[in-house]
Amino acid sequence: MWKLKNAEGGSSWLQTLNNHVGRQVWEFDLKAGTSEDHLDVEKARADFNDKRFIQHHSADFLMRLQFARENPLSPLPPQVKIESANDITEEAIQTTLMRAVRFYATIQAHDGHWPGDYGGPMFLMPGLVIVLYVTGALNAVLSEMHKKEICRYLYNHQNEDGGWGLHIEGHSTMFGTVLNYVTLRLLGQAPDGGQGTMEKGRAWILDHGGATAIPSWGKMWLSVLGVFDWIGNNPLPPEIWLLPYFFPIHPGRMWCHCRMVYLPMSYLYGRRFVGPLTRIIMSLREELYTVPYEKIDWNQARNMCAKEDLYYPHPLIQDILWGTLHKVVEPALMHWPGSMLRERALQSVMKHVHYEDENTHYICIGPVNKVLNMLCCWVEDSNSEAFKRHLPRILDYLWVAEDGMKMQGYNGSQLWDTAFATQALISTDLLDDCGPMLKKAHMYIERSQVIEDCPGDLNFWYRHISKGAWPFSTRDHGWPISDCSSEGLKAALALSQLPQDIVGKPIPSQRFFDSVSFMLSMQNNDGGFATYELTRSYPWLEVCGVHFSSNSSSRSI
């Protein structure tokens, strides 16, 4: 049976700043649970499968079942029944709040945060499985039970038409369908497996033009795997990282999530890395296309995109730019003396990859660049310490529920949820009931604050200050975010006004000042506040069709 482990390490390759506070990892334990528990879990799985086209989200049944044993529910006052507005009294509200607070205590982890499912996107797990497959680490990292639950999740979230969407509620797309079909094949599912569901998936792909119409990220993943030719990709030249920063298109001006994805992508593109051509890969070359693989027009495929995936057509200026890079610039960079510049660019890119890895303790800013960075480290040196440190952090992104195992959109939302929960609990004025919860939450908030900037010249690494901030998830992740910091600060300030014998000592005043300084540093010239870092680019780039998430917007705290 699956068991959630909180705030634990488990590997000598793991590094941490706060004894893994906030880390949540699922582990399969053959001895865990009673026979009744097992029956309850199977019933929850069957119920989800029966309603999967109506109800797309899980109820976190496995976690709730475990916590019901570990954190027994205190006796509850009778439920209040409201039949008219006259029944809404102060006593009725207090009773209802008390019931809610006592239930909430049962789903809090011992380190103070409230765990939960942060899944939904359907394009994350394929990247992980592809990377583990090409590096030969698939069976070492994913047990048979992991694979079984991943397959369960993918089958549960396949649409009625046979395809998969960008996310669990999305319409079928070429991006989602090809990547999830490929993932199931790599996990051992046969082309006619899944009681006909694999055949439905493949039929959707072929009926919509085949995998040549997959969008750019999909083309990149398939190229890494060996079922798409790199010449069918629009260029991602790593040399762009060598440009002076004053260039408007310098990647240092991109929004951090975009920048940190295109950083490792440019390395893989520059290396033209392709995994081993196994029997499954050769079979996929036959399964995914409407014409024989050797007859595909890769130049035409560069700009192909299925209508289901086309949210914004390429402007003419982009097509001209891509065509010039593909036909003129890339050939020059692939041969001497241009190849010398290419090698220098690749070395520069890897320095930035390692900086990101080390400063997030190999969690990385998100799941996409996590697996891409891991692959880059393996391509650079398959026996590297960096790759070995990446492997145990994979588990930080995996979550299990009754719908199966998913890869989350972050390593969790621990600080974000805890900050809001703390403020809500304090507002009830039920300190006798909330005290133990608030003390644990206070510990989590205190131990999750970022207390120092990243090392080195922040301008060189294109990083903003982070001292005093709070992250979205955990301290080991560490990327500073303005709204998470504001909610963390509000919660910490509110806790500081409560009796210390109930909620513990307040955070030192200097750390409050550091948080305020960080938030003030996030204000843009237009008066709004940025998320991770200040605006660095220009709105006119979007007018020109250069869409690379230019970090040109603000939002209020």
How would the blueprint of this fold be written?
Blueprint lengths: L1 E5 L17 E5 L6 H16 L10 H10 L19 H17 L17 H11 L3 H4 L2 H13 L7 E2 L6 E2 H13 L10 H11 L8 H10 L30 H16 L7 H9 L10 H4 L14 H18 L4 H22 L7 H14 L4 H9 L4 E4 L2 E4 L6 H14 L3 H18 L33 H15 L3 H4 L5 H13 L18 H4 L14
Antiparallel strand pairs: 1-2, 3-4, 5-6
What does this structure look like?
- It is a single chain.
- 48% of the residues lie in helices and 4% in strands.
- It has 22 helices and 6 strands.
- Helix 10 runs parallel beside helix 15 and helix 17 (414-427) packs parallel to helix 19 (482-496).
Q: Outline of this structure?
A:
It contains 22 helices and six strands.
The rounded Rg comes to 25 Å
Uncertain regions spanning at least 5 consecutive residues: 547-557
- The residue-averaged pLDDT reads 95
Q: Percent of residues in helical segments?
A: 40-55%
Listing every helix as H and every strand as E from the N terminus to the C terminus, the arrangement reads EEHHHHHHEEHHHHHHHHHHEEHHHHHH
Across the major sheet, the strand order is 1-2
By DSSP, the count of extended strands is 6
Shape: globular
Beta-strand content estimate: under 5%
**Major β-sheet annotation:** 2 strands, antiparallel
Q: Which structural class is indicated by helix and strand composition?
A: mainly alpha
